[in-house]
Write a structure and sequence with these properties.
Blueprint: E1 7-10, H1 28-36, E2 46-48, E3 50-53, E4 59-60, E5 62-65, H2 76-84, E6 92-95, H3 113-129, E7 134-140, H4 142-149, E8 154-164, H5 171-175, H6 180-195, E9 199-204, H7 213-229, H8 238-247, E10 252-258, E11 264-272, E12 276-284, H9 291-306, E13 311-313, E14 327-337, H10 343-365
Parallel strand pairs: 6-7, 12-13
Antiparallel strand pairs: 1-3, 2-5, 3-4, 5-6, 7-14, 8-13, 8-14, 9-10, 10-11, 11-12
Helix pairs in contact: 1-8, 6-9, 7-8
């Protein structure tokens, strides 16, 4: 193994990571913001433990976890099984983007099969040396998952809902793909939401409406109120969002609704790169029928069409996205367990789950609103 291919664990994100296709998440700015603003730390149960080679040409964002919150690949039943048989499931090693269920490469940099083998060997040994129960690599491309399957990882399937831009001229052009009944329903929802508020505005680095500190505070208030309604608290703090708006404004867009006093009553924050739009955070002060759909989905689609973005990921879960034209796609995650006793059961679990997921995806395809 050459020195550059020797892997190490980094307790902080290095400053000089590359950026794959201007990815707004897999880069130093986003990952360091999570650390510097104390969104990920020992107290929150996310202990930064990135895996990288010496020249940082390969980098895998990773965290030692003391729980399974904020991951969106649910393994609570695995943890319960471990407990029932007298084993500790936590701590575990997670390679993923905190609180961000976005499918992207995760392993930053181009790797060959030998380097992947070395990475897997290093990661497994790191788990064994520190008595971690397992190693999980979430929301990865299918090709990467298939490679990891050859290194004793179990692969789990999931379903997300994404929108694809088929060279639409505008939203009306997009709606022309819908059946008549579904098209009428979307128009009804949009009209109802838009008439219930005084204005809806888009804020980004390219519009006349610029992001400022006051807007960020209003957005964050909406975000936290929405969590508090469920008796929870948002994973991310105001300092984190303020920092992102300051250091990566070209990767952000805020779409917000205002009342007659020009008070923000709901907002959706999007991330973007050169090809993709990502719906990430939503908040509202008052419940307005269809306003969530308008800000998080319809306005996002309009934004993607206007800016020639090819793909829109609005966030994980939610079958209601199907009726708005989001299509069911597979998501992939890889899982290695240190305890051999559980390997047969987990392998069978993943195989049975995959069968159900494939059936579910087929059923979802029948419910998309496009003309046949």
């Amino acid at each position: 193994m050459t020195p550059d291919n020797q892997f190490s664990v980094y307790s902080k994100t290095p400053d000089n990571l590359g950026n794959l296709d201007n990815d707004p998440f897999l880069n130093s700015v986003f990952l360091k913001a999570l650390e510097d603003k104390q969104c990920v730390n020992l107290k929150s149960g996310w202990h930064t433990s990135h895996i990288a080679n010496q020249d940082l040409s390969l980098f895998l964002p990773s965290y030692i976890k003391q729980h399974s919150y904020g991951e969106y690949v649910f393994d609570w039943s695995w943890a319960q099984a471990y407990q029932q048989y007298g084993f500790d499931y936590y701590p575990k090693l997670l390679s993923a983007l905190p609180f961000t269920p976005i499918p992207n490469p995760k392993l930053l940099g181009n790797h060959n099969l030998e380097q992947l083998s070395q990475l897997c060997e290093f990661g497994r040994q790191f788990c064994l040396d520190n008595q971690f129960s397992s190693w999980h690599i979430n929301f990865i491309p299918q090709a990467f998952a298939e490679q990891l399957a050859t290194h004793d990882f179990n692969i789990r399937l999931g379903v997300q809902f994404e929108w694809f831009n088929h060279s639409y001229n505008d939203f009306e052009h997009y709606l022309n793909r819908f059946t008549s009944r579904k098209r009428k329903q979307v128009k009804k929802e949009r009209k109802s939401a838009q008439q219930a508020v005084t204005s809806i505005r888009v804020f980004d680095s390219h519009t006349e409406h610029q992001l400022d500190t006051q807007l960020i505070k209003q957005f964050y208030y909406c975000y936290q109120v929405t969590y508090l309604k469920r008796g929870q608290q948002g994973y991310l703090n105001q300092a984190f969002f303020e920092h992102l708006f300051d250091v990566m404004p070209d990767n952000l867009a805020l779409i917000a609704a205002f009342d007659e006093q020009d008070k923000m009553i709901a907002s959706a924050l999007f991330f973007k790169d050169q090809q993709n739009l990502y719906g990430r955070y939503w908040g509202c002060l008052t419940e307005v029928e269809y306003l969530h759909f308008e800000l998080c989905y319809y306005q996002g689609i309009e934004y993607a069409i206007k800016h020639n973005l090819q793909r829109f990921n609005p966030g994980t879960q939610g079958e209601h996205k199907l009726a708005r034209g989001f299509e069911p796609i597979y998501s992939y995650s890889a899982h290695w367990l240190a305890e051999p006793t559980f390997q047969p059961a987990i392998k069978q679990f993943c195989a049975e789950e995959a069968k159900q997921i494939r059936l579910y995806q087929k059923e979802c395809l029948k419910r998309i609103p496009f003309k046949r």
